[in-house]
Amino acid sequence: MRRPIRHWKSKMKNRKCMNEITDIENKKGLQLFAQLVSEISSSTKTNDKLQSLIDYFATAPDEDKVWVIAIFSGRRPRRAVNSRLMREWCLEIIGIPDWLFGECHSTVGDFSETLALLLSEVEIVNPRNENLGFYLENFISIEKEDESIKKKFIVESWQQMNHEEKFVFNKLITGSFRIGVSQKTIVNALAKVVSLSSSIIAHRISGNWDPVTTSFKDLLGENSSVTDFSKPYPFYLAYAIDDSVETLGEPNLWQAEWKWDGIRGQMIKRNNEIFVWSRGEELMTDKFPEYFILKDLLPDGVVLDGEIIPAVDGKPLPFAVLQTRIGRKNISKKQLQEAPICFFAYDLMEYNYEDWRDKPLSERRKKLEEIILPIHNKAIQLSPIIDFNSWNELAALREKSREKNSEGIMLKRKDSVYKVGRKRGDWWKWKIDPLTIDCVMIYAQKGSGRRSNLYTDYTFAVKDGDELISFTKAYSGLTDKEFAQIDYFVKRNSIEKFGPVRTVKPELVFEIAFEGIAASNRHKSGVALRFPRMSRWRKDKRVDEINTLDDLKEMLRLYGR
Amino acid sequence: MANLISFTDKGLFCEAGNFYIDPWLPVERALITHAHSDHAKSGNQFYLCHKDSKPILELRLGMNNYQTVEWDEPIFMNGVKISFHPAGHIIGSSQIRLEYKDEVWVVSGDYKREDDGISGTFEPLKCNVFITESTFGLPIYKWKPQQEIYADIINWISKNKETGKASILISYSLGKAQRVLQALKETTQTIFAHGAIFNMQQTLIDAGWDLTPVVRITPETPKELLKETVVIAPPGAEGTSWMKKFYPHSIGVCSGWMQVRGNARRRNVDAGFALSDHADWNALLTTVKETGAERVFVTHGFQDAFSRYLNEQNIAISAEVKTQFGDEDEEANSPLEIKNEEPKMYE
User: Fold this and answer.
1) Against a cut of 0.80, is the pTM above it?
2) What phi, psi does A42 have (nearest 5°)?
3) pLDDT per residue as tens digits for the range A202-216
């Protein structure tokens, strides 16, 4: 349940008073946070990261802790200032041309860091030593204000900060913090500083809470009284099986299901309301009006795990169809008809307001069937169990996954409990081999983050007679060493430069692996690939040996729908 | 009038004087700005270099026909007046000034403006045409004063000691290592070094330099002796089994590329210190302005951006030049992480 936003103002007044008192002992909220970010991003070991977080949570002001939990779990205030304006103000301060900013940005690979580096000579006129919360709450309050007020706040803030502070400040405004800390690490760190178990913490920090109105006590106090009916459970995620399935032992200990290519979702029916969460903990209820009717059809106090996927007559449609629905605010009648969304339920986490995650899968499945089977509605169905007696038989069935618009098979031990996060042992995904095509690299662009100043983002082409037709980009799948070698090649074999993009002598051949193919009029080639990545650098192949546009079209015909 | 220096397949060529500067293919007569391997190649019949470069060239290229000069000591070749001037990059590094028929050209080689105490004090030279490097020719590269960086390194070392770790500092064996060692002289009693660093340091000490001595690590060096110590190693040793001897350890890289956090993260090191032997953006601009050159050729680095900026701001008429410099210099080429010095485990 979203709390009304109007509370934040009065809350902020309270905060002010609190600040004045706590300021004496906690002088350096933003500095502490900047130090945390710098430690986490420079350490290479999970244990060191964990220790940095524990130290942080043990010393930081309470209001900042709440914000840090919010930020690392994707709950940030709406962007108060767009990056175009920040770029303008930066150029104005340091007096360089816009194109030079562009060069710097493509070399650094990170907008916030580029700004911080360029502004390194801005003198610290008056260090302010505010808390993190101060800045985030200001972002909220300037969001609707005039440009001049925004500018004053941002520029003055820059003038009060050192490099590390500027960097995190810019990050807080413009982007997400992707610094290699999993939710699990956050939870484990918190478990060391508050007297709650990890699973309770994981549950408490998920769901629908607002860092502006939630205090650290509300969130992680021993007896927090706030009831949030929307609160989801953390998902249990499977690893890909790395050995052969035979190593799993007796087939009859395992339940097999199709692995669907949709969006993993959690459906909650509590207090006569429906809530739908994505795996990324985004509340998506409003995006799928098809599910509203389930408010009247599902029993109260039930939480389901399943797949959000478009389906007609109980048969799933390709992911490309789902994509037409994601990211749209208003859904047209036409879309509702062409991409009707269904929920393929495969697990039960809560029944009758009782946490069922510690019961064995077989028991959960039985109850799940009891709940779903009587509901005859196209918005929900059971994800079927695959009958099989031997691993060989299952392997043969798996080969037919693509026909069912499935990515392969899920294997779950029948006696498994529902765990938190990605765990080995009881659940495995057994995906089908990807589709592949050989092609040549024709454009390259510098990457970001740890690929800063390296050409790592490539565009590939297939042959069409004498022409090369670009059809996909790919960024991943190679080793650091291979990227370094390709970077070396690009720097010496670039033909032309278009902004950050270099055209490259078409010489390097790669095998691209992908999960699906769909028709697209946005690309010259007429196709769009799902999850393309470089599976191999074909040093053994020459450009005249790559696949053709006709090969690609044939794949579209076979697997496109 | 024909250009005094032309850019050829073999390198920078002075036709009037019939010699090359830092050629990358073998030639008859080569003038060498400094001893880094992308500027000083083997196979030339004659080498002219600053006297401090000679011992290093002998170590790296063996015995050759070397002639040395002092700084600001004029030499004539076919009527071209040649002189070497401090570039501040590494020991012996020089700018090369050519004067012919009332025109002056200066080749910068690699340079830095901050005086590190051993590489000479860079002096800007008035000239008509300036050929400058641009390794760090973007405004994101602005160095902190070296004393601040040294303090950061020293703090890092004592933090490592507190947690029982050895501190491994990755520094290029020629240039960066000497500089870092000088900085640590006061605070660290015994400094250990990889064979490549030891050899270079010893060569320079033998040549009469008052440098910090290091202890060479050999297979016989007992592990206990290395606990919580400071070790200097070349980039090639990074990530090899040679490092295991110092466990538990923390790895820090000293390089201008560490200015950008992504580079440090990619190298999977624990600390990055943006300590560079090259001019930063401001130093490049200042230098170009102080030379008063009407024309500026920009070589290895961000030559397109730096050259465009000089033109647009009417600082000079500028053009970028493709050379093979930077290819094998660790600092000039960090993104590739080319291991110029093959990590011989123990030399």
Assistant:
1) no
2) -95, -15
3) 778 877 788 888 888
